[in-house]
Write a structure and sequence with these properties.
Elements: H1 2-8, H2 10-28, H3 66-90, H4 94-113, H5 119-122, H6 124-140, H7 146-167, H8 171-195, H9 198-209
Helix pairs in contact: 2-3, 3-4, 3-8, 4-6, 6-7, 7-8
């Protein structure tokens, strides 16, 4: 019974634990940001989450929060992986289902790599997640789940805004939007996990065949 309950809420559990551990890591971060090397502690509006994964903080001190940040990212990686694999079962299109399963499996590896020296390779998880959520959004927009439609659009917009500001070197807004898109993605994933069903996507496939 306990195993069945955990399995049913695995995505929510992984995301909740991930957020809690990353918040804990931020409390233990010594200090320093790209804008101010001598700043005290972790500033959510100026530090990037990736700063939590470095053995040494920007101010030069040992990062005591690193182990918790790595653990938090590990839980998040499994959470996203489970979500995309489960979502693949709800989408009736076989090609799309296979793509989502691949993204789910790959995310378990790539998201975790963000917390390792292979950080640049690990950032591919952001692209994979964006592709996966974009594909799901296309199908959600064909359903009658209007609140999920709004959630999908808002989530994707936060992704695009982050890339825009980061690409143009506006690190202040990029740092802020990094947390916004991460939080919006987590909330969207949880909403889709609990409030979308395979039946929601069936009418779309039926109309397409007709």
């Amino acid at each position: 019974m306990k195993k069945s309950l955990f399995k049913q809420h695995a995505v929510l559990a992984c995301m909740a634990i991930s957020v809690a551990l990353i918040v804990l890591a931020s409390q233990l971060y010594p200090g320093g940001s790209l804008l101010d090397k001598h700043a005290a502690g972790f500033d959510w509006s100026k530090n990037f989450i990736s700063n939590l994964f470095a053995p040494q903080a920007i101010n030069g001190l040992a990062n005591r929060g690193r182990v918790w940040a790595v653990a938090g990212m590990a839980f998040q990686s499994f959470g996203y992986g489970i979500f995309f694999i489960r979502m693949a079962k709800k989408i009736p299109s076989r090609p799309v289902s296979k793509i989502l399963k691949f993204i789910g499996t790959a995310n378990v590896l790539f998201i975790f790599l963000i917390a390792t020296p292979l950080h640049d390779l690990g950032t591919l998880s952001i692209l994979l997640t964006l592709i996966g959520l974009f594909i799901i959004t296309v199908f959600v927009l064909k359903t009658k789940r209007h609140l999920l439609k709004i959630g999908c659009i808002i989530c994707l917009m936060t992704f695009y805004c982050f890339f825009f500001f980061f690409g143009f070197g506006n690190l202040i807004w990029a740092a802020i939007l990094q947390k916004v898109y991460n939080l919006s993605a987590i909330l969207l994933v949880i909403a889709l996990e609990y409030f979308s069903k395979a039946e929601d996507f069936t009418p779309f496939v039926s109309r397409k065949k007709r």
